[in-house]
User: What shape does this take?
Amino acid sequence: MSALDLQKIQSIRSMLSLQRLHSHWRFLALIVILFFGLVCTVTISLWGSLKQEKELNNQRLIFQSQILERSITRTLESVESSILSLETIIPQRPLDSEHLTWLTSLRERIDHTLYFAPHIRQILVLKEKSVLIDSAGRSEGKTLDTQHIQLDQHRHSRSSNGLIILGSIDQRFVPMTDQV
Assistant: This one.
């Protein structure tokens, strides 16, 4: 073999190695492109599933809040109808101790109302500040502590026809002046 043949063989080898190197680069580029494609696909898939999960959670929260709202509305309507049914009875007779049978029937009606409205804790029937009927059975004959509950009867009496619904009190039962 001549030197010329050796040069041709070496040039062919170098061309083949360049072609191999070039094919390796193409293969490596293909692998990198496929890897980034896979990463992008996984990222888009995860983002889509997280977005769908967030939408489902929002729908659940909306549904639960609607159920809670309906429940609270029904409770308030129940309280209102219970109290209004009692209010229609009270003006029928004066609240004097002479009518003990009427007060007894009113007490029974209050107990019956509370039996079907367990969310009402206590109903008081007052004459001035004196408690005539207490549904809890704790305060009859005692005097209501209007200072503690910030109740001004003169302000309420014109607009409420004598029916006063108190707000939140920081104890279990309505405070009386006779209590410590």
